[in-house]
Each structure stands twice: as C-alpha cells, then as structure tokens.
Write a structure and sequence with these properties.
Length: 466
C-alpha cells in the first residue's frame, strides 16, 4: 500500500531540512578527518590505514540490514538514531586516545554512518522523481562536501586551539552532532513512501535489476578511489612533516566546493541527457585526474605556508588548472550513479537498494585505504595513484561492457523475455549475497521440484492431503 506523499512545498521543505542535517553531520566528520591522524599515533602507513578502514568496514557489514530496517521501520527513525549514535561515540573517542577505545568507537561510528547515509538517500529518492532525481542527488553531494569542507577548516582550527589536548576537539564535535540530532528530531518528518510487509533480506534484494548490477563495478572502483583520497593526509604528513594540514586546508575547502558545485550541475545534466552519458563524462575526468595527480601532489606539498596565491600558482604551473578541470568533470560520477540506482530500485525496496550502495561504498573505501597504505610503503605517491588509475580503468570498462550487453539484450528481447532475464540475474546476485536462492514469484514450485527427493510431492500439495 502506498501512502499519499506530501505536496510540492512540503517535499521541498523536507529536502531542505534533510540537506541541512547532512551538512551539519558532515561538519563533524570533516573535523575528525583532520584531527584523527594527529590523535592516534601509529608507527607505519599500513597500520594507520587499517585503523582508518575500521569505520567503513563496519559500515559495509551493517549496510544490508540497515537498508532492510529503513524499508520496514521508516526513514526518519533510522536517520535520527544514527546521528545520536555518532554524537555519543565521538564523545567516547574524546575521553582517551587509547588505541582499543578509539579503534572500537571509530568502527561503531561506521554503523551510525550507514544509518545516516542510507536513510537520507532513501528519503531523497522518495521525494524526487526521475526527471529531477539527478539534481536532488547532486544537492545531497553538495551538502555532503560543503559540510566536509567546513569541518576541515574547523579541524585545522581545533588542532591549534586544542593542541595540548586534542581530545577536547572531539568533545566539541560531539556537542555539534548532538545539537544536530535534537534539531532533526523535532523538525524532520517522515516522507510519503510505498510500504511493504515484513520480508527477508533475500526477498528484498530480489527487487534489483541487471542494470543496477551493471553499474556496481564502476561504483565500487570509485569508492576504492575515495579510500585512496582519505589517505591523503597521511601522505602529506609523511612527506612534509606537517601534520595539521593547515597550509592545505584552504585548497581542500576549494576543491570540495568545486566538486560539490559540479555534482549539482552534472546531477541536473543527467536529468536532461541521461545517467550513463553523464557517467561517461565523469569517468573520463576522474581517470585523467588520477594520472596527473602524483605530479600535482609533489608540487603542492612543497609550497611554504603563507605563500601568496599568485606565487603559489607560479610554483605549481598550469597543471593545476588542468587538474582542476579534470577534477570538476569527475564530480559527474556520484550524483548520476546515485540517481541511476534510485531510478532502477522498486518503490517499496528503496532502502534496500541504497543499502547495497552503502555496502559497495564501505567495501571500496576499506579496500582503498588499505591498498593506499600498502602502495605507499612499497612505491610512494606514484604507486598509490597509478594503481588507483589502473583499478578504476578496469572496473569502469567492466561496467561499460555489462551495461552495453544489457542494452543490446533488451532491444532484442520482448518485454516478457527481458523480465525473465532480469529475474534470473537478480536471483543469482541474491544467491551470491545471501548464500541461498530467492523464492521468486511463480518459481517456488519449480525450485521445490528440483530440490525434493524423487517420488515426493511439493509441500503445498502434501499439505492439502492432510
């Protein structure tokens, strides 16, 4: 049964509150991104990468169940609970930099992050339609990145103000997150959405299509790249001896704002020209940026603190303009992929689809941060980002091949044949995820007939004889 959704202005109001909530949440995460490497001392890049990866690892493990809960219990409840949990865990991190305490609390923040991310993306999907969903996802990305940018600036400031006791900065962040949770609790309303009775995880992921499966490789590669980017503060600290990143904070903020503005623009463009075409634009930009990033990185990190902007440009050269343009093009990927997944997800299983998205996000970031640490130990900055370019290229080509095959097959088959093909493919995906076949509508007796001993009747028929 589908509940009547709110009117246009109510939807815009809910979206605005949601974007503001995401912005405030990401301020906390951005602050932690700067302070965390300073707060936890580790002897090697590999160990630091593993500690950082604990957060996305647990986010990934919890993504599928959280997506199911969002579908069954509602979006708002999960979102508010996740924000409150982040506040409590950040407070615990600020009490001590004991490696076990910090690592455990940081890992549990991954569960809370899954709750916030999946619930917010599902609400955006509920409140948009295919003709404007790209713009909605682009605005979400802008709120995300703007929050991270402000958080990075605050983290840089806190690293100086609380240099004698960095734990206090986590307490301040906890207060920000707690206030955000209270704000959201009172003003955010549950959006109208299709509801569905209780189902198993396997049945929920039966709603996936081969198009969603086809887009997953490039999404997974992009999340691996995000893991590499999250390792950048460690790379800077190792090569410059500057741990607070204060001289880079302005550049990072500018990069995030450019990327967020690009996400909004390209998200809207995907509403006009299509998702896959916009993904192609983003893939070309991302690959080009990864290729030139090692050279750009080495020039940026040697700029002395306080160098005027014009002099900084002269030290870096025109490569920074080329890099900025390619980086801008790369911003097309996230909103177009998110909108694509939202378009293809069944109305009653949108939380589950976004749970799969979050699983890939977490798995990719975990993989990326660990690979970045290993590559840095083995070959330095060039090894880090050239390996990232190879991974991104391979998985992007895989997605292109799968989506092209889906498109070609769809054109050559009747609608009924295509539906059967989609059902069989999603059944195989569900088997891989949950280690068991999905009971597809209309296939239950066939599966039972294949599995039961010879000479016996299906359970439904046997039941009728008792």
């Amino acid at each position: 049964m589908t509940r009547t959704g709110p009117g246009l202005f109510a939807k815009l109001g809910t979206l605005s509150i949601l974007y503001l909530s995401v912005f405030l949440t990401r301020i906390g995460f951005g602050t932690i991104l700067i302070i965390f490497p300073l707060y936890v001392a580790t002897p090697s890049s590999s160990l630091a990468a593993i500690i950082i990866a604990l957060y996305p690892a647990l986010e990934g493990f919890s993504a599928l169940p959280v997506g199911a809960v969002v579908d069954l219990r509602g979006r708002r409840r999960v979102f508010v609970t996740g924000m409150a949990l982040i506040s409590v865990l950040t407070f615990l991190i600020g009490l001590s930099n004991n490696l076990v305490l910090v690592g455990g609390a940081h890992a549990l923040e991954g569960l809370a992050a899954a709750m916030v991310t999946i619930a917010s993306l599902t609400m955006i999907t509920d409140l948009t339609v295919e003709q404007n969903r790209g713009a909605g996802m682009g605005a979400f990305d802008l709120a995300n990145l703007a929050g991270y940018g402000v958080g990075i600036m605050l983290g840089t400031l806190f690293s100086k103000i609380f240099s004698s006791n960095l734990g206090d900065s986590f307490l301040v962040v906890s207060a920000i997150m707690g206030a955000s949770s209270i704000f959201v609790y009172f003003v955010l309303r549950e959006p109208g959405h299709a509801s569905q009775g209780r189902r198993s995880l396997r049945q929920m992921y039966d709603s996936l299509t081969s198009d969603v499966v086809g887009i997953l490789p490039i999404w997974f590669s992009l999340t691996i790249i995000l893991g590499f980017y999250l390792f950048l503060p460690r790379l800077v600290a190792a090569r410059t001896g500057v741990n607070d990143l204060s001289q880079s904070a302005g550049l990072l903020l500018l990069a995030l704002l450019v990327f967020g503005a690009g996400a909004l623009m390209f998200g809207r463009l995907s509403d006009k020209i299509g998702r896959t075409k916009t993904v192609m634009i983003g893939a070309a930009g991302e690959l080009g940026f990864l290729v030139i990033l090692p050279s750009l990185f080495e020039r940026l990190v040697v700029i002395p603190q306080g160098t005027p902007l014009i002099e900084s440009y002269r030290m870096v050269g025109p490569i920074i303009i080329v890099g900025g343009f390619l980086f801008f093009l790369g911003s097309a990927l996230i909103p177009s992929i998110l909108a694509y997944i939202g378009d293809k997800a069944s109305r009653e299983f949108r939380g589950s689809a976004m749970g799969l998205y979050s699983l890939m996000l977490s798995g990719g970031i975990t993989t990326g941060t660990i690979l970045a640490g290993i590559a840095d130990d083995l070959g330095g900055v060039q090894a880090v980002f050239y390996s990232a370019a190879i991974i991104f290229s391979g998985l992007t080509l895989t997605s292109a091949w799968l989506l092209y095959g889906n498109s070609k097959t769809s054109r050559s088959k009747s609608p009924a044949q295509e539906q059967t093909r989609q059902t069989n493919l999603t059944s195989r995906l569900s088997f891989a995820l949950f280690r068991g076949p999905v009971d597809q509508p209309g296939t239950q007796h066939r599966l039972l007939a294949e599995d039961r001993p010879l000479g016996t009747l299906p359970r439904t028929q046997n039941a009728g004889r008792h």
